[in-house]
Amino acid sequence: MRIELLYGRRGLTLNLPKTVCAHVIRKHPMPLLSDPAGALRRALEKPVGCPPIQELAKGKRNACILMCDITRPVPNGLILPPLVESLLRAGIARENILILVATGLHRPNEGDELREVVGSDEIFSTFRI
C-alpha cells in the first residue's frame, strides 16, 4: 500500500507491506477565503466572544506575541502585521513588543529559517524576536 502524507515541504511517501492494514483519515476540505487578509483584519476588529485586541491592549505597557516554530505551517506573514498594528494603535511602543517563537522541545529557528517562519521582512527587521 502506498500512502502520501503531508509532511515537510515535499511530503512523504510510505510504501507499506500488504500485511499492514492502514486507514488514512483525511480532514474535510476547507473553503478558501477570497480575502484572507481582510478576514483576519475583521476577526481582530470584531472577535467572537471578547473585546478586540486593540481594546484589550489599551493602557498596557508591553506585549508578547507567541508564534509556532517552523514545524507548524502557520501563515505568520499574514497574521503578524495586522496584529502588531493593533498593538501599536493601542499605544504599546514598538520596542515593548516581543515576538516569542514557541519551539517547545524543538531546536531553535535561526537566521534565514527564522525569517521564513516570521514571514514578514518588516516584522523580522524591526521587532525583537
Notes on the structure:
By secondary structure, the protein is α+β, with helices and mostly antiparallel strands. Helices cover about 35% and strands about 15% of the residues. It has helices at about 35-45, 55, 75-90, 110-120, 120-125; strands at about 1-5, 10-15, 65-70, 95-100. The strands form 2 sheets. Strands 1-2 form a two-stranded antiparallel ribbon. Strands 3-4 form a two-stranded parallel ribbon. Strand 3 (about 65-70), helix 3 (about 75-90) and strand 4 (about 95-100) form a beta-alpha-beta unit. Helix 1 runs parallel beside helix 3. The N and C termini lie far apart (about 45 Å). About 10% of the residues are buried.
Topology:
Blueprint: E1 2-5, E2 12-15, H1 36-45, H2 53-57, E3 63-68, H3 76-89, E4 97-102, H4 111-118, H5 121-126
Parallel strand pairs: 3-4
Antiparallel strand pairs: 1-2
